[in-house]
Design goal:
There is one protein chain. 69% of the residues lie in helices and 0% in strands. It contains 3 helices and no strands. Helix 1 runs antiparallel to helix 3. The longest helix is centred in the last third of the chain and has 28 residues. 0% of the residues are buried. This is Protein-export membrane protein SecG. Belongs to the SecG family. It is a multi-pass membrane protein.
């Protein structure tokens, strides 16, 4: 059981890395900090399509990572 959970944790770790790398970049640079926030007016839109899908996948994989890690700790302590 321990080895199965450890394997699932490693697979989940690789999938999290891939999901984070596939997310589109947000271009926040120093110029936007000096512009007085005028660019922030239109940047508060909800993500749609691929970006929203990747955010959900990353969140699910992150929760799964912590559940697997806690299960490993529980199994290894008993």
């Amino acid at each position: 059981m321990y080895n199965t959970l450890l394997t699932l944790l490693l697979i989940d770790s690789v999938l999290i890395i891939i999901a984070v790398l596939m997310q589109p970049a947000k271009n926040d640079n120093a110029a936007s900090a000096l512009s007085g926030g005028a660019a922030d007016l239109f940047s508060k839109q909800k993500p749609r399509g691929f970006e929203a899908f990747m955010q959900k996948i990353t969140a699910v994989l992150g929760v799964l990572f912590f559940v697997l890690a806690l299960a490993l700790v529980y199994i290894s302590s008993h």
